[in-house]
Structures are given as structure tokens and as C-alpha cells.
Specification:
One of its GO terms (molecular function) is transmembrane transporter activity. Keywords: Cell inner membrane, Cell membrane, Membrane, Transmembrane, Transmembrane helix, Transport. It is a multi-pass membrane protein. InterPro entries: AA_ABC_transptr_permease_3TM, Aminotransferase_I/II_large, ArtM/GltK/GlnP/TcyL/YhdX-like, MetI-like, MetI-like_sf, PyrdxlP-dep_Trfase, PyrdxlP-dep_Trfase_major, PyrdxlP-dep_Trfase_small. It is found in: Cell membrane. The chain has about 375 residues and is mainly alpha-helical. Helices cover about 60% and strands about 5% of the residues. The protein has a two-stranded parallel ribbon with strand order 1-2. Strand 1, helix 15 and strand 2 form a beta-alpha-beta unit. Helix 1 (about 15-55) packs antiparallel against helix 9 (about 195-205), helix 6 (about 110-135) packs across helix 8 and helix 7 (about 140-145) runs antiparallel to helix 8 (about 150-180). The chain is elongated. The chain starts with 16 loop residues before the first helix and ends in a 5-residue tail after the last helix. The relative contact order is 0.09.
């Protein structure tokens, strides 16, 4: 989903499929492999845990209870880290393992995640199995014993199948939870579906495109078309950006060259040079009558940089910012970057493009 959804524009962007489609398919396959391995092995182990919880042998019952408490009492992410960084670091110290056929598997994060997920399934589903086994009517088990059915055969034919049938809705829910849990594989560099999605996002920045653009920036296409026409030798007057058609005054160019030759090429104060800020503060006081100090002045790289910084400082996701329309194209992008929504307020052309107080008041909401 595009970041434009923050402003109520729900669109899907599939531009990445051409280049990254195969990679995403492999990521989905990795997720399904984790689901299949952990689901199958984890369920088999969960059956043993479930029967162990009902065992009349104190040690077996205690061991099963301790296992489920440990698994259910610690976050799955911590378990994955213990497996990957703990066992993984331990195995490296054994030369015999590094030289064995097991090493190609032991150095892959996939198998540590699969092990952690398997144990997690065993811990959670084991308790579910225990409840299902207790839910089987005792009369059915007594009937099997009365017929002389061996215990293992009774478990395989009656007790376990009946318990699983009772637990089908719960087991379906646990399967969904397991599928969601596979997303943690990406935290240890396993390229599952989420890991590939994060890679695509970081390489393409697609999730930020709409957030930093907006519909009004489509007008830049007119600007680019005008530049292309101008390059072809056509007579074009470009009015889209504030780029003057006259040269920079010679005095400014000379001062810039002199500063460069004098070695003034290093970082300056983040807020701007003190002398410049003092001059700006004084000029502001003279022009507006509002006296400010240099500490209240910050020099930015252009008006858009200033608007962007102000939006990030003042706006929160869900806020609404009223802006007179027509406006400069990138105002919307500066505001959307903070998660806020731009609300255009039409100006009165007959009044010299001035705002009408009534129109401004009508646009105000609790989110303004």
C-alpha cells in the first residue's frame, strides 16, 4: 500500500514487480518452507508434549510443564536470537563441526529460525493438545480398553484423532499465528517475504514516493516538457520554477570565488553563521518591528527546506494544514512528509488573490 494511504488515497504500486518479482517469489517460498517445517515438526513434538503433560510419571510431567512454561514465557524474538547468536556462535568454536557436512546448514540463519519456530509451536500447541486429550469422552477410551485394544493402538486410532478433531478450529488459528511469526526470520538476515519486502523498500524508496509528492507535483511534467522543447530550440517561456533568466550579479560571484580561494570550504554552524544570523535578526526587527535575537534565527537552504523543517516540527500524522490555493507545487510534499494533510483554501481572484475570512473559517476543523 502506498504511503499516500496516510491521506486517504489507497493505491497499489506494482512498479517493482518487473525487477524484483523473482526475488519476492523466492522470499514467499522461504516463508512457506518455514511454515511447513515448523508446522510439521512442531506439531509432532507438541503431541509428545501434550501426552507428557498428562503423564503419571512425575519427571515426565514436570519436564513437559517446564518446557511449555519456558517457551510460552519468553518472546519468540528472544528465542530466535538465542538460537542464531547463541548456538550459532557456539558451533563456530568447534572445528569438527566446521569441517563436517553439517556446517553448510549450521551457518544458515534459516535453520535456526526453523528450530525456534518448531519449539514455539511445540510449546503452545502442546498445551492445546493436552486440553484436547482431556476433552475426549472417557467412555470412548474405556470402551477401547474393554475391547482389549493396546494402549498405543488406542492412542493412534481413538484418543489422538478425536482430540485433533475437537481442536481443529484452534489448530487453524495456531497455523495462522505461525505464519505471522515467520516474519521474525528477517531479523536474522533470512530473506523471507518480509525480508525481501524490506530490501525492495530500501532500494527503491517506493513507500516514500507518494508521501513526498502528491497530485500537484504532477505539474513538474509540464516543466520537464518545456525544458525538452527548449533544448530542441523551440521558443519557450518557462514559468514553473523561480529560476531567473539573468546572470548572478558579478559582485556575488566574485565574493563566492574569493571565499573558495581563501579556504572557506568547511562546515559552518548548523544553524547558520552567527554574523549572518545577527544581520537577519536586525533586518527582521527593522522591517517588522518585532525584535528577535540571533538564537531565534536559523538559516536554511531555501524556502522549501524551511517549510519542510517547520512541518516536521509542528505537524503530526492526521493534522490538517490550511494553505491558500493556488500555491507552489511542493507545498503539499513538504506537509505530507510529516503525515499531515494539506487542505487548500481558494483565494478571491477579484480581491487580488486575497483570502476571504469566511472561506478560511469554513475550512477549520478540530484537526486543523
Amino acid at each position: 500500500l502506498d504511503a499516500g494511504a496516510l491521506n486517504g488515497e489507497h493505491t497499489m504500486n506494482f512498479e517493482w514487480l518487473g525487477e524484483y518479482g523473482r526475488m519476492m517469489a523466492l522470499g514467499v517460498m522461504t516463508t512457506l518452507q518455514l511454515l511447513l517445517i515448523a508446522g510439521t515438526l512442531g506439531f509432532a513434538l507438541a503431541v509428545l508434549v501434550g501426552f507428557g503433560r498428562l503423564s503419571r510419571q512425575p519427571f515426565i510431567a514436570w519436564l513437559s510443564l517446564s518446557f511449555t512454561n519456558l517457551i510460552r514465557g519468553t518472546p519468540l524474538l528472544v528465542q530466535i536470537y538465542v538460537m542464531y547468536y547463541g548456538l550459532g556462535s557456539l558451533f563456530v568454536s568447534f572445528p569438527l563441526l566446521r569441517d563436517s557436512w553439517l556446517w553448510p546448514y549450521l551457518r544458515e540463519g534459516f535453520w535456526y529460525v526453523a528450530l525456534a519456530l518448531t519449539l514455539s509451536v511445540a510449546g503452545y500447541v502442546g498445551e492445546v493438545i493436552k486440553g484436547g486429550l482431556r476433552g475426549v469422552p472417557k467412555g470412548e477410551l474405556e470402551a477401547a480398553r474393554a475391547l482389549g485394544m493396546p494402549r498405543l493402538l488406542m492412542i493412534r486410532r481413538i484418543w489422538l484423532p478425536r482430540a485433533i478433531f475437537i481442536l481443529l478450529p484452534t489448530l487453524a488459528g495456531e497455523s495462522v499465528m505461525l505464519l505471522k511469526s515467520t516474519a521474525l526470520a528477517s531479523t536474522v538476515a533470512v530473506m523471507d517475504a518480509l525480508g525481501v519486502a524490506n530490501l525492495i523498500r530500501n532500494q527503491t524508496f517506493l513507500t516514500l514516493v507518494d508521501r513526498l509528492a502528491g497530485k500537484r507535483t504532477d505539474a513538474w511534467q509540464i516543466h520537464y516538457a518545456a525544458q525538452q522543447a527548449q533544448a530542441r530550440g523551440e521558443e519557450v517561456f518557462i514559468l514553473s520554477v523561480g529560476d531567473p533568466d539573468f546572470a548572478t550579479p558579478a559582485s556575488i560571484s566574485e565574493r563566492a570565488v574569493s571565499a573558495l580561494l581563501a579556504g572557506d570550504t568547511h562546515y559552518s554552524d548548523v544553524s547558520g553563521r552567527p554574523a549572518l544570523r545577527q544581520a537577519l535578526a536586525a533586518m527582521h526587527g527593522e522591517q517588522t518591528g518585532q525584535m528577535v535575537s540571533e538564537e531565534q534565527v536559523i538559516v536554511v537552504a531555501g524556502a522549501q527546506n524551511g517549510l519542510f523543517a517547520v512541518a516536521l516540527c509542528l505537524c503530526q500524522p492526521g493534522d490538517e494544514v490550511l494553505v491558500p490555493e493556488p500555491m507552489y507545487l511542493t507545498y503539499e510534499a513538504s506537509i505530507r512528509a510529516s503525515g499531515a494533510t494539506l487542505v487548500p483554501v481558494a483565494v478571491d481572484v477579484e480581491r487580488g488573490f486575497h483570502l476571504r475570512p469566511g472561506a478560511l473559517a469554513a475550512a477549520i476543523t478540530p484537526r486543523t
